[in-house]
Amino acid sequence: MKFDENNFNSETDAVKKYEKYLETGNSIYLSEEEMDEVINYYTYNDKYKQALIAVENSISLYPYESIYYVKKSEILNELGKMNEALKAIDKAMALEPANHENYISKGEIYEKFEEYNKAIDVYKEAIKMRFNPTIFIVKIAVNYHFADKLDLAKNWMRKLDPKLVDEEITLIEIVFGFSLLQLQNQCIDFLISYTDENPYSERAWLLLSQIYFEIGELKKALWAIDFSIAIKDYVSEFWSIKGIIHFKKEEYNTAIESFIKAIELDSEESQTFSELGQCYLKLNDWQTARKHFKTALKLERDNASAWAGIGSSFILQNKNTDAVHYLKRALKLEPCNESFQLELAKAYFNLEKYQQADNIYFNIVVFNPDNTEAWLDWSYLHWEMGNYHEAFEKLYLASPSLPPQAEVLYRLASYSFLRKKIKEGTKFLEEALGLNFNKKDLFFKFAPKFINSKAVRELIDMYNPENYYK
């Protein structure tokens, strides 16, 4: 449901006035604004039956205001009464046939009850009514997606014309549609075309940056967010996003500069302090990191990443018992957060509580078998416990289902060499060097005894790109 931006979690004068009217039955005047306030208060607090009564009273006072029929349909929709909700929205459409939002409301009623084809029919009807087709095209595509008609969904998204986008808020829906259908490249093309026509749309540049970030094009993500900043350099959100991109690029000092700028513009955003703390963690400055995590918690006690950050700072100090306490606090708030779980497993590992760590890794890979970091850490746990064969087998058996990553191949190579399986290890090392030569030091991290091995060095030299043209 759509509500006013204000929170309605406490009674206002209008609500008290209305409830006194209900209690006494005395005649009393309530303006449209006051009735809106009453309805919003009840809906915000999930008091849908009271909200419905308030809407009916509003309709009796203002029978030709279509908005009250729209609100009635939304409330009935929340109560699971589809047919009654449809009757209410049809009444709103009869009173105000030129309002395109009524078609959106009607379509969303069908969506709630998974009547996707009927929702599509409503949106197609809206297009025939000569409304701006953009939002309806997106909604048709999304509903085809939910109806498992992916080809039709993609075809409809391709009908979008950047020149017809009349509201920036619609861009968010468009990006959602492209992302849902995994059409990131088409989304990029669309947004670039839109910015050609609307070069000062900071929201479009922001969305373009986020899509580039999503597909790992970090340099282009920075390029796009810099346009948002150039247009409105006083928006803290843009600086925070720039900081996040630099963090992802492992440019921690530059990320710190961006987060500090964001804080200068908005010192009340808890998550920005938490992200700033993460930068200092990466720089092994646990003291400064913890200071920022504590500031984040002062602003928002339920900031899970701040609790986890403090836990990670204690791991850096080798105070793993304290780390466990804070990481458990974080996991109470976000029990499915795999990053927090991995940190907790690390703390247990450092405390030599191997069974607790083993249980955590097991649970992570059961629910997310694509988590490469969990497989790497789990195999290393068994290696440190002396279970060399099991350490290798866990990672080897998982590797076919993982995305191709040099880290896995270098680890398998090091395990094989250390187990004196040289032929096997050479095969893994060749694959790893071919995939990402620059990460070759990962092999020596786990197999340092081979750093002076002539055979290993010759193999590395053979794959060194600098030697290709000699």
Throw out a few tags for this protein.
Serine Threonine Protein Phosphatase 5, Tetratricopeptide repeat, 470 residues, mainly alpha, single chain
Present the secondary structure layout.
Layout: H1 13-24, H2 32-44, H3 48-61, H4 66-78, H5 82-95, H6 100-112, H7 116-128, H8 134-146, H9 150-157, H10 168-180, H11 184-197, H12 202-214, H13 218-231, H14 236-248, H15 252-265, H16 270-282, H17 286-299, H18 304-316, H19 320-333, H20 338-350, H21 354-367, H22 372-384, H23 388-398, H24 406-418, H25 422-435, H26 441-446, H27 454-463
Would you kindly provide a brief summary of this structure?
By secondary structure, the protein is mainly α.
Describe what this molecule looks like in 3D.
With 470 residues, the protein is mainly α. Helices cover 73% and strands 0% of the residues. Helix 2 (32-44) runs antiparallel to helix 3, helix 11 (184-197) runs antiparallel to helix 12 and helix 25 runs parallel beside helix 27. The protein is elongated, with a radius of gyration of 29 Å. The model is unreliable at 1-8 (pLDDT under 50).
